[in-house]
Amino acid sequence: MVKVFEMPIFFKNMDIVVPGDIIAQGKNYKIVEGAFRYNDKIISEVLGILYVRENTIKVVPLEGNFYIPKVGDVVIGIVIDYNPVSWSVDIRAPYLARLDASDFLGRPIDPNREEITRYLDVGDVIIGKVAMAERATNPQLIAHGRGLGKITEGKIIAVPPKKVPRILGKNQSMIKMIKEITKSEIKVSNNGFVWIKAKDVKIESAIIRVIRKIIREAHVPGLTERIREILLKSVGSGD
Amino acid sequence: MFLVVIKNGITLLDEKGLRNDGRRWNELRPLKMSVGVLKRADGSAVVESGKTKVLAAVYGPREIHPKHLALPDKALLKVAYRMASFSVEERKKPQPSRREIELSKVIKEALEPAILVEKFPRTVIEIYVLVLQADGGTRVASINAASLALADAGIPMKGLVTAIAVGRIGNQVIVDLNDAEDKYGDADMPIAVIPITGEITLFQMDGTMPPDLFDKCLDAAMEAIHKIHEMQREALRRRYLKIKEELIKGGGK
């Protein structure tokens, strides 16, 4: 006989939940993020939007001005210090990231022969990938490879790191749409920096405006369509 | 049939059973909460409970300085409870007093069980609570405000922490004490609870309390806490629902 499990749920998909809200009851739900189990209840741990798909529960946080590094994340960081073989990079996390010279240059370096400030100096901006992130040690970056390395042009704006998933959109739909309409290069890093390289200032400011709008209206459905309309109006169909 | 209690020229309970500000025994003072009041803080909240007004700001989790304070397995919670020098009738000296330092510790210990500090090792979460106006119950208002500010900062928590002060005047249990009741009443008992798990994270008492009244006090406190908890949830969601409504009204533009 098939055992029927009771799976009561107390919120609708896309509802706003606050810490301590009982989302559902029953052992059959799988938690993706943003919630924890207490006895047989599933409780939200952050202020966020609830996503329920079949038996998975996910709470995407709405607030949070901090970034906790995860392996594989793309981050934009600012070099704030160096020693003969590595740089210290501020990635807006509570932890300083370390970038070894060899992980930036792609070859071993002899600190007796060359100074690494020839390649990156304090104040330079890099785009890298988190190679290691553990509880006990500071994260390590790699900035060698396709799409990674030093940033020398364009504009960078800071956004709350928790809004990055909304700026990217489902399957990157939002960012793809913005890129297509504005014909610009945009990179959104997981730590909440957006790098923009646009044709002219007008398009650049239009992109910044819509990103601000996404941040404000992140929790309201139908965002992609609203953004498309605004972009088409301010930039035109892109020739 | 109420016993009239007058102390120091203040009618704490009149013949109708009303308190010095006209409330019934289990009536809360008008409570106002707003979230996200400070632009530069990661999270912030203001709680007004009658004449008591408290502002809380949260920063972090962020890098800890000096480094030797860092805890290897969890975030350090720093709480600073301060009273503005204009918050009381006679000017309070700005220097942190013994009481303020003690309350900082008490508030910290009331909030820490609710915060999932183990998610952020070697970091610090800073909470600043400023009492703008004091009329009794500042520590419970501070806990309510700080827990709202923590949620607003996006810090993962087991649940919101909700606090209330209960007490007694003679044989009468009273809820949400104001300054006069705190000073001249017979007992004052601030309680903080994580409503979702039922954990009591703050429990203090000043004065004396017979056992039967104690149980009544606790029940009254729990009832009030559930009311306040609902208001806290509402305060957090209000801001987002407002933007949503605005957009729906404006036809999505």
Structure description:
The complex is a heterodimer of chains A (239) and B (253). With 239 residues, chain A is α+β, with helices and mostly antiparallel strands. Chain A has 5 helices and 16 strands. In chain A, the strands form 4 sheets. In chain A, strands 8-9-10-12-11 form a 5-stranded mixed barrel. Chain B is of the alpha+beta class. Chain B contains 4 helices and 12 strands, in the order ββββββαβαββαβββα. In chain B, helix 1 (98-111) crosses helix 2 (138-152). Chain B is globular, with a radius of gyration of 19 Å. The chains are: A alpha+beta (239), B alpha+beta (253). The A-B interface holds A 16, 18-22, 34, 36, 38, 43, 45-47, 61-66, 68, 94-96, 135-136, 162, 216-217, 219-220, 222, 225-226, 229 and B 42-43, 60-64, 72-73, 114, 116, 119-124, 151-160, 194-197, 232-233, 236-237, 240-241, 243-244, 247, 252-253.
What are its keywords?
heterodimer; A: 239 residues; alpha+beta; 5-stranded mixed barrel; 4-stranded mixed β-sheet; 5 helices; B: 253 residues; Ribosomal Protein S5, domain 2
Q: What is the number of strand segments of chain A?
A: 16
CATH class annotation of chain B:
Alpha Beta
Quaternary organization: heterodimer
Helix content of chain B: 25-40%
Q: Which stretches of chain B are poorly predicted, pLDDT < 50 over at least 5 residues?
A: none
Number of helices of chain A: 5
Radius of gyration of chain A (Å) = 21 Å
| Largest interface, Cβ cutoff 8 Å | A-B, 34 and 42 residues
CATH superfamily (homologous) name of chain B? GHMP Kinase, N-terminal domain
